[in-house]
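re: that chain from earlier
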Amino acid sequence: QVQLVESGGGLVQPGGSLKLSCAGSGFSVDQYAIHWFRQAPGKEHEGLSCINGGDGSTHYPDSVKGRFTISRNDAENTVHLQMNSLKPEDTAVYYCAAGSECFDAELDFRGPGTQVTVSS
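^ sequence. v structure.
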């Protein structure tokens, strides 16, 4: 059974950092494009980053470029999202999802998500 499970969320003060993890089981994360998304209450899903299988090329929207960094640890079968300079508007449920390529909108499966709250 293929599965993605996120961890690392929590409460952080504005300006702080968090590192989220997306652990894969039943498959190898380096064979898929792994995306990070978030959804805040009352808002649409927002794509944050993606790392392609194979060559590991990474992609970010301008909204998080320079603050968020995606990386992959093949030995751990895990994809991380390092988030710096966090703002209250970054508060959301963060989840990862697997697809064929970063620019392919169709996703195969996703994790349940982890809550990130940025507040003083």
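DSSP finds no helices and eleven strands in the chain.
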